[in-house]
Amino acid sequence: MHNRNNGNKGFTLIELLVVIAIIGILSAIVMASVHAAYIRKCLVENSKSHCRDEFNASDEEIDQIAAGLNLSTKKTAPSRREPCN
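Above: the chain sequence. Below: its structure as tokens.
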């Protein structure tokens, strides 16, 4: 008789599927974080409407990220400093 388990060194299909599922979940989390980081950077440098169009993001997503950054809804020009005398 031939013993099936003798010399069988490898991974089972279930083990490989579990690893692939874990990698997929982790990559989805990372991609969501990276997307939010790009939107944050855009909001700091540009207006909300520009970022909404550039990233095809919803109004709620843009407002939620902007609220986390404490940005107002309107971009204002920076105030000029008074010269020191």
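The first helix runs from residue 13 to 45.
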